[in-house]
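User: Sequence for Aspartate aminotransferase family protein below. Tokens please.
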Amino acid sequence: MDTLHLGANSLESYWMPFTANRDFKRNPELVTGASGMYYTTRDGKPLLDGIAGLWCVNAGHGHPKIVEAIQKQAAQLDFASSFGFGHPLAFEYANRLISVAPEGLDHVFFTNSGSEATDTALKLALAYHHARGQGQRQRIIGRQRGYHGVGFGGLSAAGMGPHKRQFGMLLPGAAHMPHTHDPSRNAFSLGQPAHGAEIADTLEQMLQTYDPLTVAAVIVEPVAGSTGVLVPPIGYLERLRDICTRHGILLIFDEVVTGFGRLGHAFAAHRFNVTPDLIAIAKGMTNGAVPMGGVITSGEIYHTLMDSAAHGAVELSHGYTYSGHPLASAAALAALNVYIEEGVFEHAAAIEPLWQNRVHEMKGLPDVVDIRNLGLLAGIELGTDVANGKAIAKKVYDYCFERGVLIRPVANTIVLSPPLIISEEEIDVLFSTLAAALEAAGSQL
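Assistant: Structure tokens for Aspartate aminotransferase family protein:
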């Protein structure tokens, strides 16, 4: 096998995640470096990163302050457990993070990924109700087309069928609200769609079936990312918050994608002015430099669990070996300082109107059937059906990659989520290349 100058390694040993491994290994696309807005391919060519790695490199690749913080921490303290032990940096970062969280959310539990964060949020919800003497609240309600990672809890609450096909029944007690995608009324909306707030009322109908006293939590992505960027209709999240509050149900925002500036604010909760009870976070938390995740939670949840446990007892039987890892804490603290001191969130907000205008210039190009956007997120839906659109999206991806631009095809949708430092010139390169790719793909069919 061609080892691509990988020495003793081959491509065969690594079982790649969410990848058609056999196809990839026949024609691998590898990068060997990254800086700022660009990857470097193995043949030395620059590749404009239109997807922030995987929704996570918000301050651009290789930011020197984040690199320095990781290097310094590795030399000073490489590991310390958080099980009845600790190190100062985890506490320092927790305090810094809470200072930018929505008001009332004032504690954080650290994990290592978004999948662990959503599973942790669900367990916190169950534990909270158990501590209050309402242990019958065991049902979790998610949403069709929702994505909450690949743990058993998050996957059970999620609503993307193909991700579940291989794994049987998963966890009992999960139910799903309808998704909010309504192209018949909302196609080509600029930002939040005008129609569909009433879709939230289906939650009230579900509660009549299941009894609200059996429901622990509702979990949603404020903007559904992995399914193709589904933006919530105006008023939808507000209705969900109201229904959950009235029935004593915890509302969880999965902000693994939207957290840390993707919508021009520290969190989507700020953008929508809707405060959940828990927020799952990861990705941009460390600028993608070191794996880390977490759950930001209200004082009500934290103190209920603290106060219900016997003196000297472990209040929550949950955690991970690498919770609050020193290198992750260093990277996260440095990343948050960069976001704040360099005005990364503010830049994303300022450049959003240009981003919106440029993405909607794709309307009318071959095979474009819908465009959805908010913040520095966009989804361009293609084709007469999913299979047709998927084939077109692959052609568009290949065209862009060959010309030095990285985008992400998700089924029949092109997903865009660049580093938040993207410039006007880089936006022009991205969308000029994408427009040419759509034209070229249309002429081939």
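The radius of gyration is 22 Å.
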